[in-house]
Description:
Blueprint: H1 56-63, H2 71-81
Amino acid sequence: MSAPMAGPSKPPALNLPSITPLTAPTERPNEPMTHGMDFGPGAGSEALNLPQERPLSETLANMIQYDSTGDVQAIYDFAVSRGL
Length: 84
């Protein structure tokens, strides 16, 4: 004798915030449209709290250990020689 197979399971319900339509009224009426841009009124891009740019050589140095071909090492050596 065998047990009946279970039916398809339902995916878990996601509790996502609602999407604001593009045509919705602003939620920040006192903030300039250029807030977050490096021109015009309002704070510049520093307000976006993005990661700081790193030199190319630093990014490549972090990738060397994952490259079995040696190509990243060669590009890294070139970048360092050029001060990138």
